[in-house]
Amino acid sequence: MKTQSVREQLLEHTLVLIRRRGFNGFSYRDLADLVGVKTSSIHYYFPAKDDLVLEAVKEYSARISERLRSVDSSLSPREQAEGYLNFLRTAACGDQICLAGMLSTETLCLPESVHTELKQFYRMNENWLMGLIERAQSEYGKVYPVTPRALAQVIYGALQNGLIVARLFGAPERLESAADLLMASVSE
Amino acid sequence: MKTQSVREQLLEHTLVLIRRRGFNGFSYRDLADLVGVKTSSIHYYFPAKDDLVLEAVKEYSARISERLRSVDSSLSPREQAEGYLNFLRTAACGDQICLAGMLSTETLCLPESVHTELKQFYRMNENWLMGLIERAQSEYGKVYPVTPRALAQVIYGALQNGLIVARLFGAPERLESAADLLMASVSE
DNA sequence: GTCTATAAGGCGATAGAC
DNA sequence: GTCTATCGCCTTATAGAC
User: Fold this and answer.
1) Alpha-carbon dihedral of residues A54, A59, A61, A62, nearest 10 degrees?
2) Per CATH, which fold does A56-186 belong to?
3) Which of A68, A110, B7, B94 could form a disulfide with A114 if both were Cys (CB 3.0 to 4.6 A apart)?
4) Does B95 contact A108 at a Cβ distance shorter than 8 Å?
């Protein structure tokens, strides 16, 4: 466990708070107590709550981007999908959903700058899944009832909802219907 | 426009407020101002905010239940699905997502009684879609890469996420990828 | 039923000492 | 950088008059 600066600790706990309770579901006091500072110290690093959430979504997006980028593309689409799903399965066993999935329901309460980041996040994940599907299509000659783009959007949306519903039902296996469709879509 | 009792007006505006901004995103003051009463009057009908949200989700669920029940089951699966989608398309053109889709992200802030209603709501919609898919399977001899139950869960989750993302992107057509998969799944 | 008044505390945010 | 102190407002909720 590496030592973190106060700013890093604030951002880290903000990620957790948002993924658990949403932008409107936590306060500066909650965050300050977790880090062990006073609320006024948060304002030193993040003048307004909008600044905090913007930095949080940028950080979260950067982490997922790095994770996608680090996937070994010499693996088969099936193996790549399995790795992607195992990451989501870990989340489905806890009480945190995707940060973007949470914030996108709070769209009307968030500034344009956050919308921009959230849209980019969705596109990044959909495009990555679409790449897998297209490769399975060209290499295995698979045929789909809808376009690879539409299928990627459906699967990604179902995975997002799967995390939400897994937590609601207290049943991580709720993610598996979407996982099954993804695996079926990229398998030979 | 029928005259509504104060209680009915409160519930009606609560549905809109939750679908726009979520449970943590509106206050008794917001609601009171919309109806034109004082906040203390809300407490007369709904002692606590938890009571208000519970009644709201029950009312919303009853409306969707009635809508599903009233679908003419002599229509083809394709026609039934088209009607279901047109209802969702109307929502996707406004700024309100599904009430259950919104509240399910706020699970950790809501009482057990609301969880129970939300779970029942998800099951109702998934079962209805599964019925369509199973009928298409038996009547048209369609084969799916996953079970009808899993496919119904995937499609319903993708439709829920579709409403959220349609609003985020300001693009109602974002719902169409999930709509396309549903239509492909129930067409001859 | 609806109101006024108020309780008791939480909210984001700022000023200024250290 | 972090603190104390405070501002001004909002929050849910209740008591009691009408």
Assistant:
1) 140
2) Tetracycline Repressor; domain 2 (1.10.357)
3) A110
4) yes
